[in-house]
Each structure stands twice: as C-alpha cells, then as structure tokens.
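Notes from the 1:1 (GR / supervisor)

We went over the backlog. Supervisor wanted to see one worked example end to end before approving the batch request, so GR pasted a single chain during the call. The sequence is below; no edits were made to it. Supervisor asked that the structure be written out right there so they could see what the output format looks like.
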Amino acid sequence: MSTDGLSGPEDCNCLAVRQAARHITQFYDRFLAPTGLRTTQFSILAKLRRLGPMTINALAADMVMDRTTLGRNILPLQRDGLIAVETGKRDRRSKTLRLTDSGAARFQAATKGWVQAQRQLEAAFGAKRTAEMRALLHTVAATDLGSNAIGAKDAVLGSG
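Structure output shown during the call:
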C-alpha cells in the first residue's frame, strides 16, 4: 500500500483508536473507582454475568484480549472473591471462570457508575453519533484482519 495519501504517523489508524480507547477507559474508570473496579474488570464481570461460566480461552476470545492479559486482569477479581476459577469439567487442563455472589453484587453496584458514564458520553457526542461509533467499533472488532496482515511483513521488509 502506498503512503502517498498519508502525511505521517499522525494519520495512524491504530494510534487514533488506541488514544481514543485510553481516553474513554480513563473516563469510565473515574465513574467505577468508588467500587474498586477498573473498566476491564467491570467488562469481565459483565460478560460472566451475561454469558455464564466460561473458560479463560473463550472469555479472552470474546473480549478480543490475549489470554495472558486476561490472566493479569482476573487475578484481583479472584483474590477479592468476585470470580471463582474452577477446573474445567470436560478438560481438566482448562480453567472455567464463574461469577460469585460477591461479584454479582459488586457488578450491580458498579453498574450505577457505568450508567452515569454512558449517559455523559452520549451527552457529549449525541445519541446518534455514539450509537454509530459503537456500531462501527463492533464491526471493526468483528472484521478478520488476519488475511490482510500476512503481506504486512513483506511490505515493511520490501520483499513483497
């Protein structure tokens, strides 16, 4: 792909998405702080509440997160008794995550802050733009970029 239409790194899609993600995450974290949860932890509890017990691998895939990053995020949740990590029933090598009663209660308490963050974000950008942004981001997350990434190494190395 030619870089003729790009003026420089400030046009980087990845950087723009990551900066926006960090900005929004910090915003939500402020609303969740009174409950002792961070945005990623809240999201883990939300997934387990909505989908029920899941293996670590299934949850990582559902959250578009690598397993080691998920592992670091579940440690404080497990330590605080908000989730239980159990040996898989079908495969003894797998680990299944389950929301505990304490986790459900903490999630419920944190939901109030999350709702406030949702409302303020929507007030800042408008309901229509916020819904469009969310739809676009869901589409991006669901898009298979792997087949296009194969040629990326060759393009960078100049051998493609």
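Supervisor's comment: Helices lie at 13-32, 39-51, 56-62, 67-79, 101-125, 127-142, 146-157.
Batch request approved.
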